[in-house]
Amino acid sequence: MNIAWWQLSLQVPADSAAKVETQLQEAGAEAITFLELDTSEALFIEGELWQKSQCQALFAAENHSEASIHALVNMAGWQNYGASVHALEDQDWVSSTQTQFPARQFGKLWVVPSWDQAPQDTRYELHLDPGQAFGTGAHPTTSRCLHFLESHIQGGECIVDYGCGSGILAIAALLLGAKEAYGVDTDSIALRVAMSNAQRNGVAERLRLSLPEATPLPLADILVANILAGPLLSLAPTLAALTRPGGWIALSGILHSQETGIQNAYAPYFNLAAPQHEEDWSLLYGQRKSGD
User: Fold this and answer.
1) SS3 of 255, please?
2) pLDDT digits (tens, 9 = 90+) for 239-273
3) Per UniProt, where does S-adenosyl-L-methionine bind (predicted)?
4) What is the pTM of this model?
5) Rg for the chain, CA atoms, rounded
């Protein structure tokens, strides 16, 4: 095997990501990528940024050895980050990353990374690459929301995406025919990522992004919230107040064991349907009651 690269993989807590990225750059990493950590654990926080991200860093073999990479891990104090080092042939690092994120279909919508393509007869294409902000469609929580939007958008709706992350749900809604969308997130990095993705997909003029309570939001015809179950519980009155009577809500980021608590919190405001399931995750959805 002609080793060209050493790939260091780390599971990095969100609050350490920026520091780790700087340390890797200073250590001579040629490329650094943060990916969603696909797991059935409730690892992400409100705003849809993972509490832990899969960080992959590449070091040129001509300048680094396997021993030097392990020494870096020890010196930086990353022993608890699940560090692993793998040898790669030239360009294998590209294909190994890209094969994890092929184009994916969600009804008539396809989510397409830059290295893949959708079938020629595809009507709706959302172009998006993996990044630091949660949301590529790969995780069941996002997948369920995309299917929900695909089946409920008729055209001309006002959408609120509460915890927008990469902006994938708001952008998908606009591509599917929504008139306007509002994305809310607690993390300014996610808002920047979402706007960049909106520009790439030609819908930036119809998307408004803000931190919570920074800008008054209109009543939504459809509100989606793909965030942690704890925030969903505390936000029930807020999200209900943002949804017009007769409008739809879709709640994701919920483990099966958390369904009952979420249902009890939202039942006073919504007529909830039977939950939808994918792997260990649940999607709760329903229509806003009048006068509650």
Assistant:
1) strand
2) 999 999 999 999 998 888 899 999 999 999 999 99
3) 142, 163, 185, 226
4) 0.71
5) 20
